[in-house]
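User: Sequence in, structure out. Go.
Assistant: Echoing your sequence, followed by the structure tokens.
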Amino acid sequence: MTHDLPDRCDLLRFASAAIDIHHHTRLADGEAVSRNELDDLHAHTVALFGLLDTATARTRPHAPAAGDHLHNARIRLWQVCEHLHDAYHAAPRADGRRPTREACALRLPDGAPDLTICQRRAVTAARLRQITTPADLHAPAPGLLRR
């Protein structure tokens, strides 16, 4: 018995639909996003970064212009990951405690299990350093520099 595998894009469509359903059914109006939700959103965004990283590597040799656009999108997605990481650490904890201004300035991790988001961030940042130049990251907007 053989099972047909779904089309490559089917899984992405299912993931997009699941996010849309979550957005419209699970998020309460007027309520701040919890640290758990920010952690999950960060994990999703890091996974999307990995997918975009693979797509960029596959596309660049065959379609350089499209590959450059994917590269720039990948940089912006990393910036999204960074902001989600920062939002996580600035959000109130489950017990209602808010991080101190000093702790935020020092960027100290909260410890396990909160350290997981920091580990994901470190892995993504290491990958980004392999695939970009400082000029890529310091451009006013990725894509304004031509290769």
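User: And one key feature?
Assistant: The first helix runs from residue 8 to 25.
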